[in-house]
Amino acid sequence: MRSYLTMIKQCLICLFITGCSSASSLFAIKASQLGFETSFIQGLNYKHTLYKNKASHNGVLHVYLGGDGTPWFKGRYITRDPTPLKPIMLDLMQRDQSAAIYLGRPCYHQQKMPANCDHSLWTNKRYSKIVVNSMATALKHYINQYGIQKVSLFGFSGGGTLAMLLAPKIKEVDRVVTLAGNLDTDAWTAAHGYAPLSGSLNPALQPPLAASIQQLHYIGEKDRNIMLKLVKPVIKRQKNAQLIVLKDADHHCCWLKHWDKFLESLNHSIH
Fold first, then answer.
1. Burial readout 165-200 (b: 16 or more C-beta within 10 A, e: otherwise)
2. How confident is the model at residue 2 (pLDDT cuts 50, 70, 90)?
């Protein structure tokens, strides 16, 4: 069987030259290899792809939210399939013994892009009300279907942005965990010289989350994408938030190395 790295290289050629949906296909292959069930759930305006592990529901749900993926190529060309090529959150979810789902964003993980998918939903409006409300609607459907009472949101990079924006909309959320979370999108675009994310919501400008929601924010000390100085002011304004700096981590490394210990500590804290 071809290695996953080889498939990624071939996908990059396909994705950026021919514009095909190989990123979504690769992600689905990875999910299947890890033993996850694939389903689809209706959001507000979009159908969301959902991957679930094999753990049974017991009233507690862990929700994994992936990063922004590949909205741009070389910062100039909009990709036709923004689905992440590095499925970090799938690898982490595979280690989770609790009932867990990976909830896809609108227009991500699509073998054929729906007609109502505009590229703004993965570029400047990637954290817009449209995106957040559709994901919240999809998650509420799932919560109601399975009688979930407590929800933990785990978000990587831009998934951390969405976790902070989703939390106030889901009454069952009692914990938010971000990994290299982009908590101040305005400061982030300014620091890197990117175009402002016009049309998107910025967690730094929203009211602090309720004190009943435990927040754990993990940042890699070597991260040059989401730097510590960008997130520290946001976390400081929150009511029940803890900042944890990992000295050996950058933006993509080394979350899997620490994840078993993270999950063990989380399971002994609240749930």
1. bbbbebebbbbbbbbbbbbbbebbbeeeeeeebebb
2. low
Amino acid at 131: V
Name the pTM for this structure: 0.92
Q: Average pLDDT of the chain?
A: 92
Q: Which amino acid type is present at position 31?
A: A
Domain residue ranges of the chain, discontinuous segments joined by +: 4-267
* Alpha carbon distance 174, 190 (integer Å): 32
Q: How far apart, in whole angstroms, are the C-alpha atoms of residue 111 and residue 81? A: 9
Question: Per DSSP, what are the bridge partners of residue 173?
Answer: 151
Do residues 88 and 66 make contact, with C-beta atoms less than 8 angstroms apart?
A: yes
Given a cut of 80, whether residue 106 has pLDDT beyond it is yes
Query: Which CATH number fits the domain 4-267, given the four candidates 3.20.20.70, 3.40.50.1820, 3.40.50.10260, 3.50.50.60?
Result: 3.40.50.1820
Please determine, for residue 18, whether its predicted confidence score (pLDDT) is greater than 50.
no
Query: For residues 59 and 56, what is the distance between their CA atoms, to the nearest angstrom?
Result: 9
